[in-house]
């Protein structure tokens, strides 16, 4: 499926729901998470709808991961964190709540920055 009308991230891609964009190219969009676990918490998503890592074609995974260093460097410059996590949840049991594949990028600021 390339687009899911019920999907909140597809709506962000279409511009139906606003988001603060951090990075965009032909295949990938990165935008600030609405619920900032740490300052600069960003989601990186493919523009086509794939529900999770099991459904993600390798070439789409390649495009998403190719964008990650660019997003990470933009966040590093903007927020000056001292570390960064890159995470991906697949399935409800793993904490996935939006079923459009995404990576979380979490800038880290030291102990007590809101993320274990
Ligand atoms: P998950 O739990 O599926 O790994 O992560 C989904 C993420 O999407 C959550 O961190 C949540 O805050 C974020 N999110 C959900 N709805 C929206 C939205 O409408 N806009 C933005 N920017 N982020 C959203
Ligand atoms: Zn979607």
From TrEMBL:
One of its GO terms (biological process) is nucleotide metabolic process. A motif (Histidine triad motif) lies at residues 100-104. Residues 8-116 form the HIT domain. The active site is at 102 (tele-amp-histidine intermediate). GO terms for molecular function: catalytic activity. This is Histidine triad (HIT) protein. It comes from Fictibacillus macauensis ZFHKF-1. The lineage of its organism: Bacteria, Bacillati, Bacillota, Bacilli, Bacillales. The chain holds residues 1 to 116 of 144 of the full protein.
């Amino acid at each position: 499926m390339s687009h899911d009308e019920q999907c909140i991230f597809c709506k962000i891609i279409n511009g139906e729901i606003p988001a603060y964009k951090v990075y965009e190219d032909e295949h990938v969009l990165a935008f600030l998470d609405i619920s900032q676990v740490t300052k600069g918490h960003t989601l990186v998503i493919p523009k086509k709808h794939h529900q999770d890592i099991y459904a993600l074609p390798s070439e789409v995974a390649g495009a998403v991961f190719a964008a990650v260093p660019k997003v990470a460097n933009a966040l590093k410059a903007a927020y000056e964190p001292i570390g960064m996590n890159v995470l991906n949840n697949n399935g409800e049991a793993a904490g996935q709540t939006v079923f459009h594949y995404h990576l979380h990028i979490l800038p880290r600021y030291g102990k007590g920055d809101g993320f274990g």
